[in-house]
Amino acid sequence: MIFPFVIYTGKKPYNGTKRLIDAFDTSDLLYKMLESTHIIELQSEAIKDIMKDNEAGLAEVMLRESVKKDFCSLLDNNLEINKLIHKSDYKDEIIMYILAHETHSVSTVLDKIYNLAERDKTKIMRALRRIEQKGIKLGEERGL
């Protein structure tokens, strides 16, 4: 089953219709496609309410907070999020997502992630160095 939905993560609360179909002047085909599409508005939801969905909630919070680019505050104020990051099968991906959308330094962010093992920090730093080296190489190739 496919359940189409839209997740809104803008800086201001979404005040529009929750039914995507209402935002369009529709033809029959478009109407059928959009009829069951709903907008999930995360900005005005409390984090504790979003987090009731565990890993799905964690993904929703990551999307919502990426607009603010301040995961350090989020991690400081929400121990439950730290616990879910550690339990997730996608821990490394979540941490890399946080680092890609954060304005604080990598070391600051890694220190905020509760009980992150030193081997995990080292693995993440190695991955970031590889990405940096690829970027440098690509820049040099384009510069030539």
Account of the 3D structure:
- This protein has 144 residues and is mainly alpha-helical.
- It is built from eight helices and two strands, in the order βαβααααααα.
- It has a two-stranded parallel sheet.
- Strand 1 (5-8), helix 1 (28-34) and strand 2 form a beta-alpha-beta unit.
- The radius of gyration is 19 Å and the shape is globular.
- The model has no long low-confidence stretch (mean pLDDT 80).
| Beta strand % | 5-15%
Low-confidence stretches: none
Helix content: 55-70%
Strand and helix order: EHEHHHHHHH
Q: Name the average pLDDT.
A: 80
Highlighted features:
144 residues, mainly alpha, 8 helices, 2 strands, 57% helix, globular
Question: How are the secondary structure elements laid out?
Answer:
Elements lengths: L4 E4 L19 H7 L3 E4 L5 H4 L4 H12 L4 H7 L1 H9 L3 H10 L5 H7 L5 H26 L1
Parallel strand pairs: 1-2
Summarize this structure briefly.
The chain is mainly α and about 140 residues long. The chain has helices spanning about 30-35, 45-50, 55-65, 70-75, 80-85, 90-100, 105-110, 120-144, and strands spanning about 5-10, 40. The chain has a two-stranded parallel sheet.
